[in-house]
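subagent[fold] <- orchestrator: predict structure for attached chain, return tokens only, no commentary.
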Amino acid sequence: MSSVQAAAFVDELLLSSVRAISEDPKCYRPNQMLADNGLLIRERIDITSQYRCLYEFDMQTNNVVILLFISTAQDLEKTLYRYYILR
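subagent[fold] -> orchestrator:
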């Protein structure tokens, strides 16, 4: 994949996630593994791109913060440990 193709892929991944999450941020479930560790982080899985989007949703302010995109082929727990999200 060229750098131009990669940039277009990332742009579309971000835009499609923003569109989907903006429609109803509460419709995507919290990730169970993270919830078991005391973190309320929701997860949207894009079946077309095979990427998951992890995000926080503040119901009081109605704000969404996208935290991370990760391929569904990657081991989520190992990747989060790598980025020190889990300890």
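orchestrator: received. Logging for downstream: The first strand starts at residue 42 and ends at 46. The chain has a mean pLDDT of 90.
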